[in-house]
Structure formats: structure tokens, C-alpha cells
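yo, Fe2OG dioxygenase domain-containing protein is done. seq:
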Amino acid sequence: MTILHQYQVEGLEIQNKDKKWFKVKPSHQYSFIVMVGDSMCAFLNGRLASTYHRVLVTAKKTRYSTALFSTPKTGVILDSPEELIDEEHPRVFKPFEFNDYRDFYNTEAGFAAQSTLHAFCAL
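structure:
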């Protein structure tokens, strides 16, 4: 999951399904933008999609960034809760261990995939 506060320093772009990039402008100077990552997408059975995003840096304003990465403990299986699976929303992803996904992500096949998550564990 990405949580971003631009604080009047624009530059965030997200990619749509057609691979076109769009600028994201915050609705308010104190607003946060929250984007789901692949792990959360899998856990939520695809109900929220992970978003490819980038930040274009300009020299006009100083930008500060802090990153915090959190992953499941080794051996924990990422699986959608049964409450998110029904006839209208069948299971989208096979359960998986995050380290296996990360290892696949860093392979040639993972880099080449249009969606690494789907290439790794889609049903």
C-alpha cells in the first residue's frame, strides 16, 4: 500500500489499463492519496486493484520522501478471507507465500509480465 501526501508538490502519476499516465492532483492541500499494492489486491480477492504509479521530479520545489516497506512474516500464506469469495466474486488468486511472490517478481518472467501478480498466482 502506498500512502502519499504531496503537500503542494505535484508530480504523482498513475497508469490506467490502457497504459496511459495521468497526473493526480490532490483535492485539498492536506489530503492523502492511498493506493493498494499487489499483496492487498490479492488479499482483497481483486476487489481493489493495485496501481502502477510514478513521481516526476522537477527542480521547482523541494520534495521529501519517506518509504516504509512492510511484508508478511516468512511462512504466512496470503489468502482472501472467505467473506470476500462468493458466486458474484469467485476466487481470483491462489494463496501464496509473500517471499515466493517477491522472488518471482525479481525474475525475467516477473519483469516481463503485464501484471506480476496475475502471472504469479491468478486462477
